[in-house]
């Protein structure tokens, strides 16, 4: 067993991550191969694709597998061949998958779009081929990466396939967008549509943050009537009302939204992004009800959902096909740790979701419990305004500078002059984390070396850092914990300089009337304690709205399964017609299309083929008739994994 595999499995025995087959990449020395100086990339790509197409269209699994790298190969599919998100690791798993699915999906009409030699490092090179193809229900795309063999041949190491469009139902953009002239009735028509005077929405989305708006936009351009419910008075208030120091830590090219790129002006500050979300919804004419709350949503015997909405004190009742929670990690529910003595503390206790402005606590002693992104942002805000602030670090934190880290992780994929956003998203998705973990380890080590002065300064102050899960930096932490890291935008230097005080030498034993007491007997005075300790289980919001019976059927939301796919979000949640949209701006942008395609297929199949029948079992039968049973992994079934 390789050192990388051994270390991963050893770690996973003590974490909630599943065991993974490998994190290896294949540098040239490991392949015992070289790149000939006269390599004809176009010929290699065309010859390989010709052999692949011949085998795949004939459903010749053995012939197909002969084209794959024998030591390690991975195939990730998003809807195109499985109607799910699946990653198959190893020849045996892929062989079974192809045997099961090729007779049903019948992929055909493969067309190469582009091929190129991509040197990632002096010892790491692959040929990347992008292509399009068709299945029996739509258009799809693919990306395959070939690595050289000792014999001089090239074989596939990574394959990615993605459903792009359902046959007959393209997105209404470009030349297909609606172009009816305004005859003076637009305002009234818009008002009537927004009020749903005639008919119920097909999809109801709870939450008008970026995830909810992304999906609403996708559905609008597929002609699926959608209503978004937002509890706040204005779209964007979920950003506008958070702490003043909240900002994006990503380059703007990573954070675009569907159909309307995020302008560079809005790349950082929370209030500017909040205004952008409001502008986005208005410009795309998305149907959003603000100051409204979904008080109850229950599935009915017909396979749809009965939904009650409190709008300005008046109830509206709809029957909808799909209910989507787009309420973020934990649904915004604060995760308050419990410590003895909290009831006798005389000061103020806040969660980071409740904290607003540093100036609210001028002249007071503030302790921020937590040492990841929110904690750093909030502590830096206090320090910048002259407030006495101490960060209490419970465990080690992965820290990278945005200056060095973002260049390494994002450029050139999400950078000025990089590929179009949809191309960048496919490129990113085509690299399954468990297949290229070693590549992330390399990048993480390089970032740490570039950040050596910063990290040494933090260590000198006693701040504890790590290199992420399995030394992979921010990646696995984000997908498994949605936290545990800080992309530094200035707070680290404040810690080094002592402007932000640090306490991390003992665990909290209890609160006292005037502060905190620790296991070693030391005490820390505090007038205000801010818990930057994350959010609760996302299923808590589902429970509040849909009841225990529905919530108990929901699968885990977030974290990685054994294949390296995210649990619950954007996929089957365990309850028909119930979905959870979440993730950063890039993930929500990309996967909103996958969710919309699933909903579009279900809706139009219903209209075209079974008009007048009940939704539920008929739709299920149609999906199974076209796709076979959804090709889901065993470990994704309800109850198999416990959070």
Automatic annotation (TrEMBL):
The keyword Transmembrane does not apply. It comes from the Eukaryota. Gene3D superfamilies: FAD/NAD(P)-binding domain. Pfam families: Pyr_redox_3. GO terms for molecular function: flavin adenine dinucleotide binding; monooxygenase activity. Keywords: Monooxygenase, Oxidoreductase. InterPro entries: Auxin_biosynth/cation_transpt, FAD/NAD-bd_sf, NTF2-like_dom_sf. This is Flavin-containing monooxygenase YUCCA3. It comes from Mycena sanguinolenta.
């Amino acid at each position: 067993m390789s050192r990388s595999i051994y270390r991963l499995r050893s770690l996973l025995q003590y974490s909630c991550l599943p065991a993974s087959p490998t994190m290896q990449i294949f540098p040239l020395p490991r392949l015992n191969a070289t790149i000939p100086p006269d390599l004809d990339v176009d010929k290699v790509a065309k010859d390989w694709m010709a052999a692949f197409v011949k085998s795949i269209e004939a459903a010749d699994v053995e012939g197909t597998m002969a084209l794959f790298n024998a030591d390690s190969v991975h195939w990730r599919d998003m809807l195109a061949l499985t109607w799910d998100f699946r990653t198959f690791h190893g020849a045996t798993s892929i062989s079974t998958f192809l045997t099961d699915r090729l007779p049903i999906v019948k992929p055909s009409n493969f067309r190469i779009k582009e091929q190129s030699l991509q040197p990632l490092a002096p010892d790491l090179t692959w040929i990347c081929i992008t292509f399009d193809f068709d299945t029996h229900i739509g258009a799809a795309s693919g990306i395959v990466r070939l690595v050289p063999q000792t014999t001089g041949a090239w074989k596939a190491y990574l394959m990615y396939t993605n459903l792009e469009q359902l046959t007959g139902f393209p997105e209404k953009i470009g030349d297909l967008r609606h172009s009816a002239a305004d005859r003076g009735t637009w305002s009234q028509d818009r008002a009537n549509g927004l009020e749903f005077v005639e008919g119920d929405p097909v999809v109801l989305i709870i939450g008008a943050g970026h995830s909810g708006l992304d999906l609403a936009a996708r559905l609008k351009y597929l002609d699926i009537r959608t209503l978004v419910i937002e509890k706040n008075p204005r779209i964007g208030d979920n950003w506008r009302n958070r702490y003043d120091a909240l900002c994006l830590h990503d380059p703007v090219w990573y954070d675009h939204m569907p159909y309307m790129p995020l302008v560079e002006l809005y790349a950082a500050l929370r209030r500017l992004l909040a205004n952008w979300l409001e502008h986005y919804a208005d410009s795309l004419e998305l149907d959003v009800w603000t100051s409204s709350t979904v008080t109850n949503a229950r599935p009915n015997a017909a396979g749809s959902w009965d939904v009650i909405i409190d709008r300005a004190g008046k109830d509206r009742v709809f029957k909808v096909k799909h209910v989507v929670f787009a309420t973020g990690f934990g649904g915004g529910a604060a995760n308050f740790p419990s410590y003895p003595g909290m009831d006798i503390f005389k000061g103020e206790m806040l969660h980071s979701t409740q904290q607003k402005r540093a100036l609210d606590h001028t002249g007071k002693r503030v302790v921020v419990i937590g040492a990841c992104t929110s904690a750093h942002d909030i502590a830096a805000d206090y320090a910048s305004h002259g407030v006495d602030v101490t960060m209490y670090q419970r465990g080690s934190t992965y820290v990278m500078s945005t200056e060095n880290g973002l260049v390494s992780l994002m450029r050139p994929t999400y950078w000025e002059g990089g590929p179009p956003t949809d191309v960048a998203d496919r490129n990113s998705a085509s690299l399954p984390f468990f297949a290229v973990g070693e590549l992330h380890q390399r990048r993480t080590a390089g970032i740490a070396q570039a950040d050596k002065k910063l990290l040494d300064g933090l260590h000198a102050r006693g701040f504890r850092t790590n290199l992420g899960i399995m030394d992979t930096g921010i990646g696995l932490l984000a997908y498994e914990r949605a936290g545990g890291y800080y992309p530094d935008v200035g707070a680290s230097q404040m810690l080094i300089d002592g402007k932000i005080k640090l306490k991390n030498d003992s665990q909290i034993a209890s609160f006292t009337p005037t502060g905190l007491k620790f296991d070693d007997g030391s005490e820390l005075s505090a007038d205000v304690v801010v818990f930057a300790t994350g959010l609760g289980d996302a299923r808590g919001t589902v429970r509040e709205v849909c009841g225990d019976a529905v919530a108990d059927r929901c699968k885990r939301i977030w974290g990685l399964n054994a294949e390296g796919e995210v649990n619950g979000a954007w996929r089957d949640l365990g309850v028909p017609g119930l979905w959870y949209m979440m993730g950063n701006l890039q993930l929500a942008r990309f996967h909103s299309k996958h969710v919309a395609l699933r909903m579009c297929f279900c809706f139009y199949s219903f209209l075209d083929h079974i008009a007048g029948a009940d939704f539920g079992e008929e739709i299920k039968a149609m999906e199974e008739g076209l796709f076979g049973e959804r090709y889901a992994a065993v470990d994704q079934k309800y109850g198999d994994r416990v959070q």
